[in-house]
């Protein structure tokens, strides 16, 4: 595995945790660093860090606040 890729994976706790849970990615990243994008995609899906997940969470929060305000009225 390339040195800069190792540093990225070690420095970020989320990356390290995801690699510990999904060790198969270590093999792929060792073979070809191009798999880093796939690794990032999978990690963001699992930890719900995609933009669509954040928007969905914001909409859910707004809906909850709206229902609380309607209940108070």
Description of the molecule:
The chain is mainly alpha-helical. It contains five helices and no strands. Helix 1 (3-11) crosses helix 2. It is rod-shaped.
Features:
about 80% helix; single chain; about 70 residues; mainly alpha
Secondary structure elements and their pairing?
Layout: H1 3-11, H2 13-21, H3 24-31, H4 35-46, H5 51-72
Helix pairs in contact: 1-2
Report the portion of residues in β strands.
Answer: under 5%
H-E string: HHHHH
Strand tally is 0
Main pleated-sheet profile: none
What average pLDDT do the residues reach?
89
Radius of gyration: 18 Å
Backbone shape:
rod-shaped
N- to C-terminal separation?
60 Å
Q: Which stretches are poorly predicted, pLDDT < 50 over at least 5 residues?
A: none
- The number of helical elements comes to 5
What's the quick description here?
The chain is an all-alpha fold and 73 residues long. The protein contains 5 helices and no strands.
